[in-house]
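Example is below:
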Amino acid sequence: SQFLNEAIYEEYKDAKTVYGFRLFDILSYDVSYRDTIGIRATDEECYYTFIKLFDPVISNFCSSYPRVEKNVSYVYPSNVVSLVGVTGTLDAHVVSCRVRVVRSLQGFPFAWVCSPNERREIQNVVKQALDSLKGVEYYKLARISSKSRDTLITKHGIFRNQKLDCDDTWSSGRGIWRDGTSNAIALVNEREHIIFLTQEFGGDLCHAFYRMRDLVERTELALEKTGHKYMHSVVYGFLVSSPQEVGTGLRISVNVKLPHL
């Protein structure tokens, strides 16, 4: 990381979070995967224990939004413009819209450093919340059938960089939830505790966004009934392991046709 200089190293080399994670641990993810920005939080306390490292990284990726004392979300459906009918021909070129939101549960390390027992505990909590939503299915990776696996691959509901027929140790405590239409999916204990995905064929981004917000909020209410809640910081917003995604945890993508490329 360009922000890890000798002075920062000397200050933090012996520091550790309440879960016992050290500076080496937040750097080890990049060594293993080589597709990150250089650091990844191991738990909520990382953002405060190693604040002189994480704060510049977050500010660098969010340079258009200066650091404030209180994070305010402006993510409302009224701020999302539908692509349907824009310029008369754009909709014909839009294949699909996809909305992705990540969330973490307070009181646990982040998913990538959780033990199998911690993952199973998180899975039980999240599954209970998702089970309260009507018309859904939940697949535990350790017990998934070949038919269900093929369906999830088709619906892009497979875990990134992993196969669903992997060993029991890795698959333990991980699972995939989907609604009856397969247009909404939640990955449990992938790289984050929960990754919500909604997809809409065509250019109706608003519809995908509305469904996402409804899913995230209903899950949050169900979690609160069992004494759990999303990890949140007054300064940074929603916290996840990747510093790039703190705040809203939101990512939107649009797939378009390029027939002449």
